[in-house]
Structures are given as structure tokens and as C-alpha cells.
Amino acid sequence: MTAKEFWDKIKSILNERKLTFVWLCEEAGVSLQIMKNRIYKERIPDVDNTLKLLAVLGITFEEFFGVEDLFPVKKEIQAGKSEMLPVYEDFTRKKLEDYIAVPEDLKTKRFEGHLFAVKIGGDSMAPAISTGDTVICDDFGYQADGLYFIVFNEMCCVKRLQWISGGIKIISDNKQYEAMFVKADSKEFKVIGKVLYVLHKV
């Protein structure tokens, strides 16, 4: 679902019920100005605000978007040095926390069954990724230097990877965190997949 389709559908529901957008924002406890800004920039609200809007309308995420357009968001890994989720295998078995719409360009056979999303905590990848942001990733492993979802020392995290002689350099965007090095065949290191989208929390 595109942003235009999202807002057109909200408008249609409000018109059918003879309700106003101002009323919806007030009842949902979301900022009218931020929502107007989202409409102007053709962006869908973040997950939390979307859930608030739909709750007021009495509509579930699945009903609004259609099940085929959704995939799970798992809470919450760390982009910093504090608490992180366990290894990827345990991570994928956790109970679903939320849902998010699949971007149009990822609705292809290549990505079918190979996408997941994670809410981020920590500051090691700031300013590119901040606490509360959501990343959308594939599970195709290492493909080329770039931003990846990895398991390192039994912890899940998002880092930049750079292939160098003898192994891989693990890099944080925040310069307060030193880069790390790991041998490519290390049992303590696993590349799950590439980060395809970063959805910023407003």
C-alpha cells in the first residue's frame, strides 16, 4: 500500500462515517500537524501512530492493509552495547509484536518469505539509525559491503560490514564505538541479511 492509498482509505472511512480528520487525531492522541506533514510528504505514519488511528476507527492492521501486505516486526534489538536479543534462531520464534506494510518494491518473488523487521534500540548506529526506528531486512546473508543484521557473540545487532583481508570489519556509525574485526569463519559471527529500509520514528 502506498502512502496515497493509505490516506485515501482513511479519508474514505471518515467520509462514510461523517467524521473529521481533526476528530480522528484528537481521539487517537496523535499530533494533527505531524499527520498533515505526513500527508504532504506522502508518507505513512510510523507503526505506533498507525495503530492508534486504526484503533479509534475500530479496524485492525490486517483488515486495513490486507494480510498479504504485512510481515512481523520483532521487538527489540539493540544497535548499542546494552541488552540485545538472543541468537537469530530464537529471535525468529518470538511471538509477533506488531505488523508493518511491505514496501511496494519488495513485493517480488525474490523477497517472498525472506523479509523481517526489527525495532531498534541503542545509539551505536546514530545518526543513520536511532532508538525507535524500524529496519526491514532480508535473510540472504552477506552479499556485499553494507548495512546488515548480524549475530555476534550470541547477540543480534545491526552494523556496517566491510570485507577485508582475513575477515570482516564490523563498524558502528557512531564514532564513540570502536570498529571490531572477526574472521569470516568464526562460529561467534553470522550474517543474517541486508538492511533494506530504515523507517525513522518521528
Compose a concise summary of this entry:
By secondary structure, this protein is an alpha+beta fold.
Describe the structure.
This protein is of the alpha+beta class and 202 residues long. The chain contains six helices and nine strands, in the order αααααβαββββββββ. It has helices at 3-16, 21-28, 32-40, 47-57, 61-65, 88-92, and strands spanning 70-78, 98-101, 115-121, 134-138, 146-152, 155-164, 167-171, 180-182, 189-199. A nine-stranded mixed sheet has the order 2-1-3-4-9-5-6-7-8. Helix 2 packs across helix 4. The two termini are 20 Å apart.
Keywords for this entry:
single chain; 202 residues; alpha+beta; nine-stranded mixed β-sheet; 26% helix
Task: Report the strand count.
Answer: 9
Which range does the strand content fall in?
25-35%
The biggest sheet amounts to:
9 strands, mixed
What does the radius of gyration come to?
19 Å
- Portion of residues within helices: 25-40%
Arrangement of strands in the largest sheet = 2-1-3-4-9-5-6-7-8
Model regions low in confidence, pLDDT < 50 over at least 5 residues: 80-94
Count, helices: 6
Q: Give the CA-CA distance, first to last residue.
A: 20 Å
Structural class: alpha+beta
The geometry reads as: elongated
Q: Round the mean pLDDT to the nearest integer and report it.
A: 80
